[in-house]
Amino acid sequence: MSLSDWYSLNHFNNQGIEGLGEYIHGHGLKFGIYLDYGTLTCAGYPGSMNFLEIDSKSLARWKVDYVKVDGCYSPVEAMPDGYEKFSRLLNETGRPIVYSCSYPAYIPWRSNPRSLDWERLKTNCNLWRMFDDIDDSWGSVLTIINFMRDTQSTLQPIAGPGHWNDPDMLVIGNFGLSMDQQRVQMGMWCLFAAPLLISADMDHMDPGSEEILKNPHLISINQDSGGHQAKYITTKNGVQLWTRQLADQSNTWAIAFMNPVSGGGPKAISVALKDMQLESPPLEPIFFDLTDVFTGEVFGSVQLNEMFTVRVNPTGIVMFKVEVHKPAYIAHILLQYLGLRNVSVSII
């Protein structure tokens, strides 16, 4: 029995899943669905193996916008070819469907990154799971962050517009994370340029959680057109330092200080921007504004080599958008144009 037949017989009365899709689109939402490249799904329902062509056409007919294809009950060695075939079949329908692939999570690539053809993966898939499922706990969120840190030499270069590493869903708005920990997940997922898929009851969400999810400063970082995944810089006094290059504005970055430790009080970290490995920053005497992405307030203006101090709560995060202080930068460029290269510029 194909996926199309099963859904039509078992759900949504006489309207079938097409009616469900119309209902979803009628409310201004996107329509996503879960499949499995196997004989069964992970929950034991019919899988798509041997039905790839009919299932791709069904998705297009139902006007699906997003499909996640899991990998239970399928041979690992068949996955790269099978997922590639389904990518081709989806494209042949003419329906633009975001394609999420799960097969990297089933291949033990960490011990040998070359065992997975990453170029083939990003050619055929828009995003991919490559690690364990998340659960509603700080331990799970931190494990994924540390995984992204430890594998960045492999994962960071392949992330970009149209092909994303997917560290799994946001569990913000549930019960397992404190507010600080929810800020950590949202902040780090935005730094990772990760897909932001909410796994929570939107009808019964705490206002604080909703505020985190709707934060425009964080969303703008996540959606930055460059698609660069953040890089881990170092750990200082137990706090992880991260930097992401931004592209929507020139000379702009996002930086974060994440404290993974649950005990004790806030940790004070003193750094200079030069320690954050910003890519190609203008040289001094330029000043840089540090804007707190959670409050929208300017933390301060500093030069590249000037030390500043932040205090990071246990299992918390401090995150800034860094951009050139525009009045001082304009004055600096003007002085250079006039040939006055050794004149200092004060912050306005």
TrEMBL record:
Top-rank lineage group of the source organism: Eukaryota
Gene3D superfamilies: Aldolase class I (3.20.20.70), Golgi alpha-mannosidase II (2.60.40.1180)
UniProt similarity note: Belongs to the glycosyl hydrolase 27 family.
Enzyme Commission (EC) number: 3.2.1.-
Organism of derivation: Opisthorchis felineus
Transmembrane segments: none
Every Alpha galactosidase A C-terminal domain range: 227-316
A single GO molecular function term of this UniProt record: alpha-galactosidase activity
Cross-referenced SUPFAM superfamilies: (Trans)glycosidases, Glycosyl hydrolase domain
A Pfam family: Melibiase_2_C
Keywords: Disulfide bond, Glycoprotein, Glycosidase, Hydrolase
Gene Ontology biological process: glycoside catabolic process; oligosaccharide metabolic process
Subunit structure, interactors included: Homodimer.
Name of the protein: Alpha-galactosidase
